[in-house]
From TrEMBL:
UniProt keywords, alphabetically: Hydrolase, Protease, Serine protease
Species: Phyllobacterium phragmitis
Hydrolase recorded as keyword: yes
Family: Belongs to the peptidase S9A family.
Protein name: S9 family peptidase
GO molecular function, one term: serine-type endopeptidase activity
Pfam families linked to this entry: Peptidase_S9, Peptidase_S9_N
Stretches the record annotates as Disordered: 1-25
Entry keyword annotation includes Hydrolase: yes
Residue ranges occupied by any Peptidase S9 prolyl oligopeptidase catalytic domain in the UniProt entry: 486-698
Length: 705
């Protein structure tokens, strides 16, 4: 049975061909589908109703086509959704974290889509509901809360929300005595605010018309946004700005950076009118960030060639570079990912050979110890503490078989206190599953880690289908953590696998460096090597592997489809960054200038142009057979614009030589992150998994085994 035979033979939407030519570096390209890019895309992000009618008509035709091709999976989708929802404790509540006289936490109500924020007296007592996300989302097709931050005096809350999916966040201010919002409404922000020490106002970054956080403002409570004072402005469109606060509420940190260079400025939190103070002027390739430690700043940096980073310190009253002193030296091959400081301890999380561990150092004695676990593959999260003068920090642990556990950890006594274990209401027995860490050999001899999960009774004779996930960009590491969704595939006999490919920092900074710019091809060939290893070890076979990735991982999907279409039985590409060359040439798009350090600058460099053109998925679609492909996007996505997959799908259908379908699904009410509610997002996952099951011939199964 061919793959195409499991789908009905229906006519697909055919995009009109309107040739558009572009010449760069003496090279002329013709793009037949450039018209799918709305000329008023900035307006569309804020108001999707202004989308060009011809483009809307085409996207709606695509949605009708995908619905028809997946019609026979509706019952399966409902079953998958019910299974995944059944693994979620609907009235989930976090363990509150202590801060001053209160403890703050989040919870959900049964049937609720959005989180609620509450607080109790510090040592327990009656909950006060501060913000109900479900209530705020009423009547909105899309709604996502960004963050909340209570003022140092605990009397007000600044909170952010996006109601279009475009990530232009609005901020509100809530009085925590009356629980009523003040008139201090702020629009077009990146979603958060940082209070001054006196709780009289807060700092926030505002997005420009191209969706770039380039200006820092201070808002005083009781005034309007037009009265807000501009504190700092970044004029280079290749650098984004972010603002954060210190744990002692003494400083406001202004972080400016791209993917390889950073610069920080500080403002005393008790003097919001003060001019920002530069810590160290930006230098290409040098990154650093600050954590307050009383009378010193601890600085995580790669300066002096420390590719895997080291920690230095400097006096808070003299934080300039000449006063930096090494505290934790670099350990090549073990990358330091983040750090924080407390009165008596310095804590950092590091990763070696793909596995994380937390290191605690006594600031007085210099004694160190590690928090680590023994499974072959696992995930650690360091939540730390909201308070500086504490011996207790919080961390989380999970593996692909073990639900998430949260611990309070005494840094002095080394005692772990289990606070909660993720409840799986429908039941979960870790002993029914196996998790392993494999090593696939890439073409150049590098060993690529692959984390896998499967049911203990799954036959390992090559007959099992497999979902192989990958990302491989920006130094992002995909953790081998517990995933309630993938169990619906694993329980049906799937191998679930994560390929820890180059472009991430799984094996240190060099692992990232060897998967970017002129070495980007390693990301794709590593993923293909992972698929080949799974087949060679008889976990699966090539025609039963469904490749899966999103965003830059969606670019990975497009690249491997061109490079090795026979290695995969199907491909799922979520919000796929597939029109790389055109996007990185377009300086008006939100992320383009800040992306040049990651991909290269094809505007000024012919070498970078040719490198990107050599692997860009859209540019390299050819007349060959492709496996069934599912592409998904959100209309108001500012990160990977909807027209990238729209063009890719149109070109695939034009050139490919097989009858396998290319399915394109567009969420007309969402952006990059997909549906905003916790359950509505599961509906999207169920759709993807139904596609995987359909392609591998399991669409008729009603329940997991």
């Amino acid at each position: 049975m061919t793959k195409s035979s499991v789908f009905p033979d229906l006519p697909y939407p055919v995009a009109a061909k309107k040739p558009d030519t572009d010449t760069r570096h003496g090279i002329t390209r013709t793009d037949n589908y450039a018209w799918l890019r709305a000329p008023n895309w900035q307006e569309v992000f804020k108001d999707p109703s202004v989308l060009d009618p011809d483009i809307r008509k085409h996207l709606e035709a695509e949605n009708a086509y995908q619905a028809a091709l997946m019609e026979d999976t509706k019952a399966l989708q409902e079953t998958l959704f019910a299974e995944m929802k059944g693994r979620i404790k609907e009235d989930e509540s976090s363990v509150p974290y202590k801060d001053g006289p209160y403890a703050y936490g989040t919870s959900f109500k049964t049937g609720g889509e959005q989180p609620r924020f509450f607080r109790t007296p510090r040592d327990g007592g009656t909950e006060t509901m501060l913000l109900d996300g479900d209530l705020e989302a009423q009547g909105k097709a899309y709604f996502r809360l960004s963050s909340t931050d209570h003022s140092p005096d605990h009397k007000r809350l600044v909170w952010g929300f996006d109601d279009k999916g475009s990530e232009f966040y609005s901020l509100g201010v809530r009085d925590l005595d009356t629980l009523a919002d003040l008139d201090d409404s702020i629009v077009d922000t990146n979603g958060g605010g940082v209070w001054d020490a006196a709780s009289e106002g807060f700092f926030y970054t505002r997005l420009d018309e191209n969706h770039r956080p380039s200006k820092l403002y201070y808002h005083r409570i009781g005034t309007t946004q037009k009265d807000d004072r501009l504190i700092h402005e970044e004029e280079d469109p290749g650098f984004f700005m972010n603002v954060s606060g210190s744990s002692l509420d003494d400083f406001v940190f202004i972080a400016i950076g791209d993917h390889e260079t950073s610069e920080e400025w500080i403002i005393p939190a008790n003097d919001p009118t003060a001019e920002p103070r530069l810590v160290r002027k930006r230098e290409t390739g040098v990154e650093y960030n600050l954590s307050e430690g009383g009378d010193v700043f601890f600085i995580l940096t790669n300066i002096d060639g420390a590719k895997d980073f080291k920690i230095m310190s400097a006096p808070v009253n003299a934080p300039e570079r000449e006063n930096w002193t090494e505290v934790v030296p670099e350990k090549p091959g073990t990358i330091i990912l983040g750090h924080t400081a407390y009165r008596d301890f310095l804590v950092w999380i590091e990763r070696s050979q793909g596995l994380p561990r937390i290191i605690v150092r006594n600031r007085k004695t210099g004694e160190e110890h590690a928090i680590a676990f023994d499974e072959e593959a696992y995930s650690l999260g360091l939540q730390g503490s909201a308070e500086y003068d504490t011996e207790i920090i919080r961390f989380s642990y999970s593996s692909m078989t073990t639900p998430t556990q949260e611990f309070d950890y005494n840094m002095r006594t080394r005692e772990r206190t289990l606070l909660k274990t993720q409840d799986v209401p429908s039941g979960h027995n870790p002993e029914d599953y196996v998790t392993r860490r494999l090593l696939a050999t890439a073409g150049d001899g590098e060993l690529v880690p692959v984390s896998i999960l499967y049911a203990r009774d799954t036959p390992l004779d090559g007959s099992a289908p497999c979902l192989l996930y990958g990302y491989g960009s920006y130094g992002m590491t995909i953790p081998a953590s517990f995933n309630i969704s993938c169990l619906s595939l694993v329980d049906r006999g799937f191998i679930y696998a994560i390929a820890h490919i180059r472009g991430g920092k799984d094996k240190g900074f060099a692992w990232y460096e060897n998967g970017k710019r002129d070495k980007k091809i390693n990301t794709f060939t590593d993923f293909i090597a992972a698929a080949e290893h799974l087949v060679a070890e008889k976990f699966t076979s090539h025609d039963r592997i469904i490749a899966h990735g999103g965003s830059a991982g969606g670019m990975l999907m497009g690249a491997i489809a061109n490079l090795a279409p026979k290695a995969f039985g199907g491909i799922i590409a979520e919000v796929p960054f597939v029109d790389v060359l055109n996007t990185i040439l377009d300086e008006s798009l939100p992320l383009t200038p800040v992306e040049w350090p990651e991909w290269g600058n094809p505007v000024t460099s012919e070498a970078d142009y040719r490198t990107i053109a050599s692997y860009c998925p859209y540019s390299n679609v050819s007349a060959q057979a492709y496996p069934p492909i599912l592409a998904e996007t959100g209309l108001s996505d500012p990160r990977v614009t909807y027209w990238e997959p729209a063009k890719w799908v149109a070109k695939l259908r034009e050139l490919k030589t097989d009858k396998n379908p290319v399915i394109f699904r567009i969420n007309m009410d969402a952006g990059h992150a997909g549906a905003s509610g916790r359950f509505s997002r599961l509906e999207e996952v169920a759709y993807n998994y139904a596609f995987a099951l359909k392609v591998t011939g399991k669409v008729t199964e009603k329940t997991a085994t």
